[in-house]
Amino acid sequence: xTDGRLTGLIVSLIGAAHVVVPRLFDPVNRLGFxxxxxxxxxxxGGLEILLGLLMASPRTRRLSLFVxxxxxxxxxxxxxxxxxxxxx
Length: 88
Hints:
- The protein is mostly helical.
- Helix content is 77%, strand content 0%.
- It has four helices and no strands.
- The protein has helices at residues 3-20, 26-32, 37-56, 61-83.
- Helix 1 (3-20) packs antiparallel against helix 3 and helix 3 packs antiparallel against helix 4.
- It is flat and about 45 Å long.
- The termini are far apart.
């Protein structure tokens, strides 16, 4: 199995784990989405499954890099908004 496929498989499995055992991921999602952690546990799990599938295919690996950067920015902004700006 190539590195890209293995990485994609791992990311997809982590995404699937969000759906199968969401209680494990709710505390982390509460940092960025304090009022709807479970909803965003499922949303983020779906996004990670998508990212893993994009990483697994050589044809979409470049797109996966772009989507991964967008995903990290989305999570970072959510956490900053909830933790810093939400305390006012």
